[in-house]
Amino acid sequence: MTNTIRASEPCELLALVPYQLGFVPRDSVVLVGLRGPRRRVGMMIRTDIADVAHPFDGPQLARNLVAAAARDGASSVVVVLYREQDLRDGEYLDAEASEAFDALLEALGDALEIRGVVAVGMRTYHEVEPDGTLSTARPLADLESTAVGARMVFDGVAVLADRDDLGRVPVVTAVHRRAAARAAREHAQPLPDAEGGSGGWRARSLAEWRGAVRAAQRDASAPGTVRGRPTRYGRIGEALEDKRVRDAVLVTLVPGTGDVAEIFCASDGRERTEDVGFVVRVIVDPEVAIAPDAALLEPARAVLRQVVAHRDEGSAPALTLLGLTAWWTGHGAEAAVWIDRALEVDPFHSLARLVREALDAGLPPGWVRRARDAGR
Q: How far is CA 276 from CA 44, 142, 304, 323, 350, in A?
């Protein structure tokens, strides 16, 4: 969404932030980039106040936030500080919020103009004066009557209550998880044959994936309902632990790739690796980037959420693919939730770490960067 925001309208900006992020920020700092003389809203970057206030890591994080806003074309910013406490007129920001704000001020320097600073508490919001004191309170309930709020309600856009809700997975019974675990053990990758390959097992695994996605396409309730298929999700979860199967699944998420994934699996990865590399490029590189196809992506994401729900120990590959695809669709906050969970399961998962680096740098997907550059 593109909106013209004037510094005299903090209520419209504050009403927009949760809808853009997809959830209500808590104990967070949100840097809102404004582009050009009309101050159109650009990238919104959220992080925890405690992280920016950190005495050692905070200054570098603040510089990363500012650099990301500048790369997005921002000429000025609005800083919004969210605290889970009551704020009062005339008081100063608490110590942690002040430290975070000071780190941002130092990082901003002369690079970007500050158009405003707003502190949001439990019931009220306040503009922050130059001396750090809080202005006269305004009730948060006023945001519901803004033009932005009304438009979002009209469009049926929902805001989640908490960031972690972005990573919801279906509720699965213990019986289903046990069935999935048995199927996973039975589907364990066999030892390499005399030729050193596992092409047949990978091909069967990819066929299982294709079948699950087709079923999800037919069943609109697949994201939240299990219809007697825990064994399928167990087999897919086990197969995704193989990097080549995971890469083949990634290929299937990109429009126009045809049977490249099947060829990649059948060749046991020794051929067509350049096709997998190109798939990554069309997600990341603005020169060849394409936008995701929701009709193709959402059923696949529904299957991945089921895989995560059916695996007791977690599935770093499925979580990573959920994070990568969320980032590809432009939902950085959701992507961060999935990737953080993936790294909890496997701190050394290479693809998850790459996506985490892109998120930390505020790097948008290729098609977003191309559209942004074309609009400058």
A: 31, 50, 20, 18, 16
Give the DSSP H or E segment for 74.
strand 74-82
**What pLDDT is recorded for position 142?**
80
**Helix (DSSP H) and strand (DSSP E) numbers for the chain:** 16, 6
Give the C-alpha distances (Å, rounded to integers) separating 221 from 19, 142, 225, 250, 298.
24, 36, 6, 23, 12
Q: What is the pLDDT of residue 129?
A: 85
Q: What is the pTM of this model?
A: 0.71
CA angle, 246 as apex, 244 and 249 as ends, to 5°? Answer: 110
DSSP H or E segment with residue 48: strand 40-48
Q: What is the pLDDT of residue 122?
A: 87
Residue with tokens 């430290």: 99
Cβ-based neighbour number of residue 344 at 10 Å: 12
Q: Would you give the DSSP letter of residue 162? A: S
Q: Residue 279 has what pLDDT?
A: 79
Longest dimension (CA), the chain: 77
The radius of gyration of the chain from alpha carbons, rounded to an integer in Å, stands at 23
pLDDT at position 362, please?
A: 78
> Residue 127 has which token pair?
């503009």
* Cβ contact 42:73 at 8 Å: yes
Three-class SS of 278-331? HHHHHHHCCCCCCCCCHHHHHHHHHHHHHHHHCCCCCCHHHHHHHHHHHHHCCC
User: Between β-strands 74-82 and 113-120, what pairing exists: parallel, antiparallel or unpaired?
Assistant: parallel
Q: Judge contact between 98 and 133, C-beta under 8 A.
A: no
Q: What is the pLDDT of residue 185?
A: 92
Mean pLDDT by 10 residues, the chain (376 residues): 46 82 87 85 88 92 90 89 85 88 90 89 87 84 67 52 75 89 90 62 93 86 56 95 92 89 73 69 85 91 94 90 92 88 92 88 82 65
CA distance 343 to 302: 21
CA dist 234 and 185 (Å) reads 8
